Amino acid sequence: MGAEPSATHSAMQSPKEPQSSTPWRLQRRVLPQHTDHAGVMWHGTYLAWLEEARVEALAAAGLAYADLSAAGYELPVVSLALDYRQALLHGESIQLESWVLPRRGLKLPWLSRFVKPDGRVAAEARVELVLVKFDGGGGGAGSERRLLRQWPEALAAAVERLQRGPA
């Protein structure tokens, strides 16, 4: 007899728990432009804040995303799962806590939680990124894209710092 799957199992394999107990943090307030007509945070805002949290954490780890892009690299999202537990409402202050998990093959998984001031987790996201190199054409239509197995030294070092968490 096999083990029963947990109630929180999703189609995307759940990443392991964070190695670092200290997450990267991004503080935000739900503003009118983040909500629907009922004052509930719109689903697209979650994605924008996840992106912002990743870019800010990477910069804090010593590598600006703009520099990565200028060198012809991108970290596109290839998988995303977002579990909503409680509505986020207009005016609420939210802390987005993120951990960078160990690489799984070509994928770099992140675990993020949207935390209310009372400590309740309003949503949890699992995002996986891959590294792509653009050759020629400046990343536009004429560019050739290559999925990379070996990461440039500066990015590999920044990811190691991301996995350790903020100092």
CA distance, first residue to last residue: 45 Å
Number of domains: 1
Number of strands: 8
Class, according to the CATH hierarchy?
A: Alpha Beta
The overall pLDDT average reads: 87
Task: Output the CATH homologous superfamily.
Answer: Hotdog Thioesterase
> If classified by CATH, what would the architecture be?
Roll
Helix content: 10-25%
CATH T-level fold name: Thiol Ester Dehydrase, Chain A
Class by SSE composition:
alpha+beta
**Structure annotation, total helices:** 3
Strand content: 25-35%
SSE series: EHHEEEEEEEH
Which term fits the overall shape?
globular
Which regions have little confidence, pLDDT < 50, spanning 5+ residues? 1-15
Major β-sheet profile: 5 strands, antiparallel
Major β-sheet strand ordering:
1-4-5-6-3
Radius of gyration from CA coordinates: 17 Å
Write the layout of secondary structure elements.
Blueprint: E1 24-29, H1 43-60, H2 65-70, E2 73-74, E3 77-84, E4 93-100, E5 108-115, E6 121-129, E7 132-135, E8 144-147, H3 153-164
Antiparallel strand pairs: 1-4, 2-7, 3-6, 4-5, 5-6, 7-8
